[in-house]
Structure to design on (476 residues):
DNA sequence: CGCAGTCTTGAGACAGATCAACTCACGTGG
DNA sequence: CCACGTGAGTTGATCTGTCTCAAGACTGCG
């Protein structure tokens, strides 16, 4: 049940409505490699209590390889939209990269309750605007970034999210495969591998085994990635 | 003042709090080519009553060309974040592509008032989640789309937003330059031009003058663009 | 220890960028 | 109203970066 409280936006987990929100969710263990089976009827909000997961497209006929929308880790709150009735649309699913502990809420019901406390709802809004802000920034940047910049950006993001590190040096394990990395960055596994090699030769990355990486200078990587701030908007664009 | 009411989320413009929201905003005429001068102190919500605008990065020293985050048209509600104190971050500004009528609200104050009515706040949340959803989809798709697919996708989006057309044929005028299009798609103006030529030769696009375009078969373009659905999340990704 | 799958490395192909003319639309002033 | 000039747009030739195809090497598992 503690997971349910943690699923609420920061600063509201001790709030009176928290108990009511807990009542409508359920816990779920998702083993490594398994997918959260999609519910065609309603949107859901998923909180990752522990583990790592990817939001990925099911390999379609016209899509040569599965596309990865995003990676999510412990503490993340994800909005999993119901599967579209439109056939041509891809079906996206949450797939566990490692064993995961999840808390799942029906979105409508969750918001109905959150709505009774404006502060909670506003907190959720702030969170989604922040996500939009970062998504926007990334979208734009990805549009004109080289493979090396994308890899550098990816590593900096992972350092921040997996090791809570934004400068200096850090070491952590990547829970996803090279293929997943490539699919999320729009690159092939060969290019991912080559760029990692280049960064390694430049002394900016050290690798051990398949997943462990060490970044001696996160700030230098961020500089290569050309990290910049951006804006958020509340309307669909382009 | 009518513009203020229209700035509210759909379905709430007749609501009691609407009047209070109107009281804190102000109208502004932004001539073509001019930028909304940024306020370093607070975030703002901007409603475009009429006209077209782009959200673009100021040309930085290390950025060869200004990058376009998104285009916005009449009816759009935009969240313009305050300029970051961090120097290395790009400063983004709203620039008018045509003469614009804007309604500007201080974000904090706006939400303080909207918060008094959960339904309004929830409507704003739904709107931002939708924006996030589409931003996410685009980001992923852009990662592995060809130049022709990006142009086709762009044209379909514009048909939808400027002419309210999702299938059949339609004609409209693009308010932005080829450079703006390229900057928003991560392509050069030469590539934009070449792809438009190819689509023209394929009979999928007709152009007249600099800005007018006719799409005989929007659905066919959407097919080329490889349009698919996706998911939304409330947490920053990658 | 050996197998299977992941990762790395190499050679050639292709899409898009870059550099460079050239053409045309549109606004301006005669 | 038309001639003109400027900047936007188009088109062409070449070059670079990433994908593709193809082996090979390592990791981690049984």
């Amino acid at each position: 049940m503690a997971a349910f409280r943690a699923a609420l936006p920061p600063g509201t987990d001790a709030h009176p409505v928290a108990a009511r929100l807990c009542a409508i969710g359920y816990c779920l263990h998702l083993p490594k490699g398994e997918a959260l089976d999609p519910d065609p009827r309603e949107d859901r909000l998923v909180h990752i209590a522990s583990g790592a997961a990817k939001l990925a497209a099911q390999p379609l006929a016209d899509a040569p390889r599965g596309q990865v929308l995003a990676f999510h880790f412990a503490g993340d709150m994800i909005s999993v939209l119901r599967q579209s009735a439109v056939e041509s649309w891809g079906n996206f699913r949450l797939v566990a990269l490692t064993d995961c502990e999840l808390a799942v809420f029906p979105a409508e019901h969750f918001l109905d309750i959150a709505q009774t406390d404006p502060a909670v709802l506003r907190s959720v809004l702030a969170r989604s605007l922040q996500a939009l802000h970062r998504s926007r920034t990334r979208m734009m940047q990805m549009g004109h970034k080289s493979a090396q910049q994308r890899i550098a950006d990816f590593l900096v993001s992972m350092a921040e999210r997996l090791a809570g590190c934004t400068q200096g040096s850090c070491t952590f394990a990547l829970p996803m495969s090279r293929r997943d990395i490539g699919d999320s960055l729009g690159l092939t596994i060969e290019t991912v591998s080559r760029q990692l090699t280049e960064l390694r030769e430049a002394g900016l990355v050290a690798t051990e085994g398949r997943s462990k990486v060490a970044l001696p200078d996160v700030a230098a990587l961020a500089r290569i990635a050309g990290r910049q701030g951006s804006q958020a908007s509340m309307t669909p664009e382009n």
